[in-house]
Amino acid sequence: MHDWNLTQTFDSTSGEVRWDSLGPDDGDPVVLLHGTPFSSYVWRNVAAALATRHRVYVWDMPGYGTSAMYDGQDVSLAAQGRIFTDLLRHWRLDTPAVVAHDFGGAVALRAHLLHGARYRRLALVDPVAVAPWGSPFFRLVAANAAVFEQLPPHLHAALVREYISTASSPGLHPTTLDTLAAPWLTPTGQAAFYHQIAQADQRYTDEIQPHYPDIDIPVLLCWGTDDTWIPVARAHTLHSLIPTATLTFLPQAAHLPQEDNPALLTTHLLDWTR
């Protein structure tokens, strides 16, 4: 993945998870969670900056990036929340700082609210967290995953690349777009792409949304002002539900501020972790 290589493995209930850590061994731990249809690759620049003072943990969720993909795999938010809780135990991290993007936001929230995962603080970047969520395209695919799986490979590749492109406001660098699309362009990846959308059910956030007022750790909400996947109206809703939340907006950034405005996002995260 163009100099982004996860060298460690963890055997989860949904298959092998690839992960890695960087930064000083004695640095305060920070864990980064990616969203869908992405991988830990989107955190590469932010992770490098945070690693100047923190021990940074990155991982590809099962069904994503370089982690296991297979038929019948459970890659739902419910499964990912349990797996993240298990990973924290595997890493022996008691109360790390956690930074979660998109789908990863729901994973981190479920682990914390349902499975007892403890965080020192939590940053949510354009998260999947409040209803309603899912673009019209996302809902169309979810309802017709078996049909989309049968697309000819060249049409599937064009669809995936165009879909990922819409997550960026200024546009993704061609190498970045190639890298983010690559896991989905193999025969296994094509099926996995539609399976993970089919399993993305809003009930998994409906289950935890009533508990957001109970969150008592510091929460930072970072939102791209140009996000068309999860509009800024959701940012205000989520901010109103979490009493400890601080909301900051990232101009000139859409749903992937790690790519669109990484310097400003990193500045906010470094200040927040300090």
TrEMBL record:
- Taxonomic superkingdom: Bacteria
The residue ranges crossing the membrane are: none
Q: Where is the AB hydrolase-1 domain?
A: 30-263
Instruction: Write down the Pfam families for this protein, in alphabetical order.
Output: Abhydrolase_6 (PF12697)
Q: Which SUPFAM superfamilies match?
A: alpha/beta-Hydrolases
| Molecular function terms from GO | monoacylglycerol lipase activity
Task: State the Gene3D superfamilies in the record.
Answer: alpha/beta hydrolase
Could you provide one GO biological process annotation from this protein's UniProt record? acylglycerol catabolic process
Q: Which GO terms describe its cellular component?
A: membrane
Entry protein name: Oxidoreductase
